[in-house]
Amino acid sequence: MSKFKGGEWLLFGAVWLACTLLVTAQWGVSEYRRLQDGFELAAHQAYAGVARRLDQNESVLSAIDALLLSREPFDAAAVGAFSREMLPRYQQLYAIQFLRNVSADNRVVFLREMEQRFGETFYIRDFDVVGRRSWQPAPVRAQSLVVSMIEPDLPAASPVYGYDVLGDAYFAPELRRAISGGQKVSSRPFELYDGGGRAYLLMQPLFRDSESPGRQRLAGMAVLVVFCDRLLQLPVDASLSNNLDLALLAKEGGHELLYERLHRVAEHDWWPVVTRLEAKLPLNSEAQPFVLGVAQDVRVSDLALLPLLLRELLLTLLLAAAGLIYSQRMALRRQRSLADEELFLQSERASVTLNAIHDGVVILRQDRNIEMANPMALRLVEMPAEEVLGQPCHEVFRLLGELASEFAEDPIGECFRTGLPVELQERMQLTTARGKVHFVEGGVAPLLSRDGVLIGVVCALRDMGPLRQRTAEALEASETRVKEHLEKLSHVARLHTMGEMASGIAHELNQPLTAISNYCQAAMQMLEGVDDAPPQVHSALKLAVAQAGRAGEIIKRLRALVSKRAIETRLIDINQVVGNCMFLAEYDLRERGIEVVQLLSGYSIPVMADSIQLEQVVLNLLSNAMDALKDEPPMKRHVIIHTRREGRKGILEVRDTGRGITPDLLEVLFHPFFSTKPHGMGLGLSICQTIVEQYGGLISAENIPASGACFRIELPLALQAERQLS
């Protein structure tokens, strides 16, 4: 220990202090959490006590109200007896009062009654509880609420008799709210008349039946004077902290402080305050809308850190001598090992990165000889490493611009000259020593020493030949796929068109052929009763009936032939069908200046159908929408495609912002050979209906007010097939 240097002793002291502070901090956090848990428990206990007293206040007031309602007229003796029984039970009740409703009509009668009661001249007076606080005669008012009963009836309270509480602007708003609502209402706190502290009024209006049927009159107001300090007094409980600060706050208006009760000063209060714990607990009383504020100062002495510090100091001193030497040696060994490991990892990462990337990287020394070339660079110059490393750069490859019309400096030479990064020009050619040319891109960057001296350059080269070839192949494959897809769509469209035409022609021709056959048979029946009828006429009519039947049979066979198309259904996603159609129709939509809004479902919409046939339906609807928007101004050309699930159905809607479809056309819109276009065949929507219905679906059209037409396709969801595939 005597061989320790000053720096080592300083390190020992720092380690000891750090460990002590860490343990102390952890202990302090633990103690703080303990104190916080205790504070939350004490706060809820205090909350329960205050909430119970608020319930007691309302219960007492309800009992007084029930007592007064059962007695007519006002029975002061019964109320006084009840009040004298209740006041000793509930410490928070300062007094119980009754405010008599005095109007201008019964003012004289009221004054006479009170003069007989007190044996002297009685006055109705004002006090101004938050102003001048002096008694003044009250003017005659249309309505007054006058104190006519006080319990306990002490001599010090005699000046309060005759106090017009409704005439005091401080109490008037709450009194009027109680009268209009008929419910219990509390006032804001105020200083008591005799200087005994702060209190508030809890008031309940008393109504009596009036002479007018169905109406009630206000008899007065039962009032509890609640002492704020006793309301917040903590119960005597050994488990409850006695250093809690309690406060009554207004529930509305930003939690205004109404009254605060601070704990008594204890012996340990001279310790510094570490933090202050606070909680605001809303009280569940509509009549007394208060928030209970609970706070507690956490002092250093509360954390009980002194025994911990002494124990940690002793333990640290015992272990310091052996631990310091060992930790220093291990720290040096770890630092050396970490430095070696970091150096190895950096070298390994650089090597793996250079070998894995698809860019050729060549490092040149200051004499322009090649110091390093990664595998991609060796493949680019088509030479082995032993023929490249240490050789001058210009003997391995050269960088030249394609079709250069004037002298251009070599990018490598420019980087050596300027010491700045150089980006290769577009279509730069790399010529190898064996005469092969590659198109490359990339750049040349300077390699600087720690002092900022140029010691070489790094060339990053990417061969663009394979990329161009892959791009061309991908483009050719994409064009082939699109061409095959369009051919399938065209083939299916021709088959459907031929089928719809055959069905329509058969339907239209069968009716006149049937009529011809019926007319001929009727003519033959009429000729049977004519004796001089020429036999040639009967034979001709018979031949006409036979030929009409033969023509009908030919049409029936033709219709059956074109309708026998094989339907190959598979599990497809309606969202994918919409994506395919948008790819195919993108050019036409852009040329016509139409904006498409795709509101596709976030979930897949699986159906059993043929993708090509459904694409034909969607493309047909898109084509109709584009035709409907051709006469609209450019800013109003919009098509909305909406897909979603509704129960067990998949929904696809195609809407446009055109002029819509007239009501008379909606009924015949899907009929074969009906078209609103001058040169249309009238088979498009009929084909769409046939395709959708063959998969158990439904297609319909409607007008959206002020938004054009909407075509709606409903198909049954293939949820079971989707679950099997997943």
TrEMBL record:
Keywords: ATP-binding, Kinase, Membrane, Nucleotide-binding, Phosphoprotein, Transferase, Transmembrane, Transmembrane helix, Two-component regulatory system. This is histidine kinase. SUPFAM superfamilies: ATPase domain of HSP90 chaperone/DNA topoisomerase II/histidine kinase, Homodimeric domain of signal transducing histidine kinase, PYP-like sensor domain (PAS domain). Coiled coil: none annotated. It is an enzyme of class 2 (transferase). It comes from the Bacteria. Pfam families: CHASE (PF03924), HATPase_c (PF02518), HisKA (PF00512), PAS_9 (PF13426). Residues 504-719 form the Histidine kinase domain. SMART domains: CHASE, HATPase_c, HisKA, PAS. The keyword Glycosyltransferase does not apply. It catalyses: ATP + protein L-histidine = ADP + protein N-phospho-L-histidine. It is found in: Membrane. Residues 70-233 form the CHASE domain. Its main location: membrane. Its EC number is 2.7.13.3.
